[in-house]
Amino acid sequence: MRLALLSLSVASLASNVWSLPTATPVRGQGTTCFPFGSATFNNSLQAPNVTRKEWWCPQSMTYGFLGFSYPMEGECYDDSFERINADLQRQKRDFGASLIRVYLPYCYTTYIWENLIKAAVANDMGIVAQVAWPLNGDPLENWRKIAASIIEVLSNNAYSNIAPYVFHSIEFGTEPIGDQDDGDNFINELKDFRAAVKPYGIPVGISEDWDRPGVLCSNYTAGRPPGLGPVGKQILPQSDFVHAHIMPYYHGYNISGTWGYISDQVHWYKNYTPVPLVISETQWAWELNVLHQGSKDVGTQQYKAFWHEYDANCQFFKKNNVGWFLHAWRWEGTFNMVMPNNSYAIPNWKPQKC
Ligand SMILES: *[C@@H]1O[C@H](CO)[C@@H](O)[C@H](O)[C@H]1NC(C)=O
Ligand SMILES: *[C@@H]1O[C@H](CO)[C@@H](O)[C@H](O)[C@H]1NC(C)=O
Ligand SMILES: *[C@@H]1O[C@H](CO)[C@@H](O)[C@H](O)[C@H]1NC(C)=O
Ligand SMILES: *[C@@H]1O[C@H](CO)[C@@H](O)[C@H](O)[C@H]1NC(C)=O
Ligand SMILES: *[C@@H]1O[C@H](CO)[C@@H](O)[C@H](O)[C@H]1NC(C)=O
Questions:
Q1: 16 vs 111, which has greater pLDDT?
Q2: Any ligand 1 atom below 6 A from CB of 40
Q3: Scanning 4, 164, 234, 236, which has its CA 20 to 30 A from the CA of 77?
Q4: What's the whole-model pTM score?
């Protein structure tokens, strides 16, 4: 009798527990997908024995802190496997990063992608690759060399089979509209590149700030949110993905106004660019950033407040299905997480998973 009662009460307790509205699971917990679940390359450069679609975690899981925006502004000599691997290890171990977003690759051969792939495999991380218009004075045709090196890695290279399992998506240009990269020909270049990548199933988009009234979004009209602008209407149909630059820093906000701006922008993208979305570039400065001046409201406290604000809004990013990258790991002056002495601008901080 006692036993029966006991098991009855356990059963009803259990059924009560299960009938509570269940919280949605923490990202990746209990899943076997890549890169948020338990999937591992087993340190092998052989392609996994599943389709790309089966390998990658679904877009619905791609939210919250994803990893760092990773400038690669040295030349090829700066892009050794050892250096990249050491950085990826730190990003994963110390911050829980799952992806990296390559920024300004200034090595124009397959060498950079091969080392990135090897390091990503070694750390079970994914890569957002980038084709960039050289901002460092290198010849402009190097833009085409970067695009060609990515296509070569995908099509005719020792890493071709594994590459689609490592490349999450590809950014064709970083602020190519804002910087007017390749002028009127840009849209054709985007179409060509996207068509060349299509057989490998890797989404392509541009990395850009769409808050450019009259261009990517429409001009502001009192009382009405802007929709797509004339250029935005051309770019969106050529985008599998939007890699958004949400940059209250460059729009001159003080730190107290940043969250209002960020959340408004996320809603704008959700409304007007209905393809998968990540925030690929967003930044704050822990001191005056001489080469990249924006908001005057900068300092260590503001820098910490900015990133803690992103972190604290994990549920917002989950609800809106948006991931974000922290710009930048290094190379970008006082935006950097890695300080000159190799410590972190925000010590002992691991963004939450929700
Ligand atoms: C890694 O090894 C595990 C255990 O043997 C296996 O289940 C898994 O499929 C392997 N991963 C890949 C990508 O082959
Ligand atoms: C890969 O999958 C195929 C088909 O399911 C199977 O025949 C083959 O043995 C698998 N290979 C490995 C290495 O697991
Ligand atoms: C948007 O505003 C700019 C600057 O005021 C103007 O030159 C342009 O014609 C406007 N575009 C549209 C579509 O209204
Ligand atoms: C914005 O920040 C600057 C620098 O910290 C400060 O001087 C200014 O008063 C702030 N403005 C507002 C409206 O809070
Ligand atoms: C590294 O630099 C930071 C910022 O200047 C400083 O706070 C920290 O104490 C330094 N750490 C070491 C180990 O020197």
A1: 111
A2: yes
A3: 164
A4: 0.92
